[in-house]
Fold this sequence. Notes:
Largest interface: A-B, 80 and 81 residues
Binding site for substrate (chains A, B): 155, 176, 213, 238
Oligomer: homodimer
Structural class of chain A: alpha/beta
Strand order of the largest sheet of chain A: 7-6-8-5-9-11
Keywords (chains A, B): Metal-binding, Signal
Pfam families (chains A, B): DctP
GO cellular component, one term (chains A, B): tripartite ATP-independent periplasmic transporter complex
InterPro entries (chains A, B): DctP_fam, SBP_TakP-like, TRAP_DctP_sf
Amino acid sequence: MPTITFRTPFLAAFALVLSLISTSLMAEKTYTIRLAETWGPGSPILGETPRSMAAMAEKMSNGRLKFRIDSSNKHKAPFGIFDLVRQGQYDMGHTASYYYKGSIPNAMYFTTVPFGMLAPEQYAWFYYGGGMELMEEVYKPYGLLSFPGGNTGNQMGGWFREEITSLDDLKGLKMRTPGFAGEVMAELGVAVTNIPPGELYTALERGTIDALEWVGPALDLPMGFHQIADYYYAGWQEPGAEVQFLINQKTWDSLPEDLQEILRVAMRTAAYDMYIQTMHESGEAWDRMKEDYPNVTHKTFPPEVIEALRNATDKLLAEEAEKDPLAKEIITSQREYLKQIRQWTNISDKAYLNSISTD
Amino acid sequence: MPTITFRTPFLAAFALVLSLISTSLMAEKTYTIRLAETWGPGSPILGETPRSMAAMAEKMSNGRLKFRIDSSNKHKAPFGIFDLVRQGQYDMGHTASYYYKGSIPNAMYFTTVPFGMLAPEQYAWFYYGGGMELMEEVYKPYGLLSFPGGNTGNQMGGWFREEITSLDDLKGLKMRTPGFAGEVMAELGVAVTNIPPGELYTALERGTIDALEWVGPALDLPMGFHQIADYYYAGWQEPGAEVQFLINQKTWDSLPEDLQEILRVAMRTAAYDMYIQTMHESGEAWDRMKEDYPNVTHKTFPPEVIEALRNATDKLLAEEAEKDPLAKEIITSQREYLKQIRQWTNISDKAYLNSISTD
Lengths: 359, 359
């Protein structure tokens, strides 16, 4: 600051007062962030996460950051959050990167990959293994920043009305399973269909479909699938699905540094918390399912099915890597990171869990 | 605020200016938090966590929160942080709850328990399963607040120079393993000793001890034990050791609400981050150990050893529960929570990891 000499003490005092007022006004400027979420109103866990982030940020900023959160019934574009934030209709979004495979094929890898990393392994890749930098590279051309937005934990392989004992049992099986996992399933001869969530229960009950994949106990319980299907299979397709916060770069740049940090830390904590909350609620929900419907049985796909699913996954990922150098870089980064960190998971958590397998 | 009528516009303007100045000055008041850590200067991971917390809090508060962090070389009381913060010599501490078993027996349960929860399961217990409330009950009588302060992940069972093939191999084995795990080992006939960290390598090399337990690959690698012991055993004793932030209640109460929230969220994020950082560095360190010392072999204790360790753990915990109703309440809460959430871990992560066991 340049030195200014005042001719009278009165003027000096007046200048000081003006400067304090201006600092005070600047410090009190509020920013209202409009956030669009993929989820419908009152959506459990997924919808709680942006609200928990907003509550933390508002409180930490003493009200200088405010949020207006719109659910999908308001903006009518549950799978168009990417465009809404890119075009500036909203400042932020809470959605999942793999929904935008159509617009940006490389967005897919930042949610989850079949036979990929568990949630903690994937957070390690994001924060310490180069994942954040690759995600930035993918989103930067669209004027967007993307941050981890909460993990669903290991998703279940789905509800099946009949047991799967061989690869043959999958041929012609009518199953609801969307996205990349659906493409993998189709490689094995599954008749993959997509059905709106509200019609899933009836479709499974009436035999329109033989099986479906949703999320895990916490979000499956309210859908009621355990009342009409006995076999609940362990997952392979989404071992740690991370949703995302999207932010328009211009909004981010308009914030002072302290509010940027408040937003960054609030998003980071809300994301971790969602992983832990889902784990908690999955434990409770699975307990309730087994108690109310003792017929429900947990199954793991036979080794030949797992092997075929892995081969089909590898084949499709190799095709994606061929198309684009950045896709290849991301896939390679994830594979190499997984190979290293899984060795650690195997000698620690897996060895521990297996050594007390009587539980 | 009461309505005040001013006789002249000048006085009204003057009052407004005064009010703005006072708001401004209040908003700019800085608080310097003195934090004592158990760890020595430059301690990897453990020492990085309070500094990362401080950096986030300083930036989020725009400098209104400042930290002065003292390592153990300064305050000379690595295992006396509880007293330093209780007596107000420091405002905060970064330490581990189980170090204070001597002063508060019930502090032990908030770090980790043999055959207990994995880190994410334990975070679920803390934040959604009643753990925070029980920890508050234990620390409140001392004028302290305790918060999760970072997880080491699953700790390894230790380095052994000879393979353990039966319970007999443990009888008379000289092993460094401190705390509750040491008491359990002693029940099995192990000659438990404690040796200062700086002398551990030489003690193991010269045969003063036959085995030792430290942490996991990330913190074991710099100690060099893999150069002189071939068998690295999977853990059972600390499946998810959570260190802690301690805060003097008076310091906490002196902070305005926004700074309390900034501190709370910074601690929460730094704690989660430490878990993820340890996971990352353990993956790298284990990779390096195997490459440089191919003789190093990962082992799991034989089932009869695991069973004996569990029985001894159950016996000692039952004795603790007998002594004190609050101990009983905490042990019961953890047991019941673990039973429920482990079912979910088993059908999700464990089933997934075992289904792709070829890795």
